[in-house]
Amino acid sequence: MSNSAWLNQGTLVLASNNKGKISEFEKMFGELKLPVNVIPQGQLNIPDAIEDGLSFIENAIIKARHAAKISGKPAIADDSGLCVPVLGGAPGIYSARYAGDHGNDAANNAKLLEDLRPYRQHNQPIAGMFVCVLAFVEHADDPLPRIFEGFWHGEILNAPQGEHGFGYDPLFWLPQLGMSSAEMPKEQKNKISHRGKAMQLFRDSLSTSV
């Protein structure tokens, strides 16, 4: 099925039940002005997939296929997280459940700060990187999922800062902007974030092949 063919179907399922992600995606899809109705999988009573992959790409594909299989519609899924080099890339694919309880942002942030404590020396910055992988499938058995990657480089603060966003946003510092991700207006964040960059690539793929 070509891009134009699936676009004509009228519906694209967003394989996520994460309220923070859904909010960001709905804003970005609105800006894309795609001629399709994007439906979060929760509206179709689709539960979360079991994310047992070993990489962002594997988990994104698992979630996209899961939503496409149950809905019978094209689906797009996001797998994203924070990677900190001094921790060997952790939390990585386990970002949402780093402290053990899935989606507990406060606990995850606290564990990250505690794990980084031995590495904080002489106020030297600790690098971190947000990663987003989008996987798009036209149907559950699509043999060629389309993958779009976005990366966002910054530093890890030693205490939360800011009231917006979700996940590790309060700890993710953008030195060039002098603010944390949680202090940024949503519109600004969506233009430069890992998720925004991956979505831009997805939009570009449509404009070049439709």
TrEMBL record:
Catalytic reactions on record: dITP + H2O = dIMP + diphosphate + H(+); XTP + H2O = XMP + diphosphate + H(+); ITP + H2O = IMP + diphosphate + H(+)
E.C. designation(s): 3.6.1.66
Cofactor(s) the record lists: Mg(2+)
Gene3D superfamilies named in the record: 3.90.950.10
Alphabetized UniProt keyword annotations: Hydrolase, Magnesium, Metal-binding, Nucleotide metabolism, Nucleotide-binding
Domain of life: Bacteria
One matching Pfam family: Ham1p_like
Binding residues annotated for Mg(2+), in chain numbering: 79
Active site as annotated: 79
Cofactor note: Binds 1 Mg(2+) ion per subunit.
Record has Oxidoreductase as a keyword: no
InterPro entries in UniProt: dITP/XTP_pyrophosphatase (IPR020922), ITPase-like_fam (IPR029001), RdgB/HAM1 (IPR002637)
The protein's role, per its UniProt record: Pyrophosphatase that catalyzes the hydrolysis of nucleoside triphosphates to their monophosphate derivatives, with a high preference for the non-canonical purine nucleotides XTP (xanthosine triphosphate), dITP (deoxyinosine triphosphate) and ITP. Seems to function as a house-cleaning enzyme that removes non-canonical purine nucleotides from the nucleotide pool, thus preventing their incorporation into DNA/RNA and avoiding chromosomal lesions.
Subunit structure: Homodimer.
Similarity remark: Belongs to the HAM1 NTPase family.
Protein name: dITP/XTP pyrophosphatase
Annotated source species: Acinetobacter soli NIPH 2899
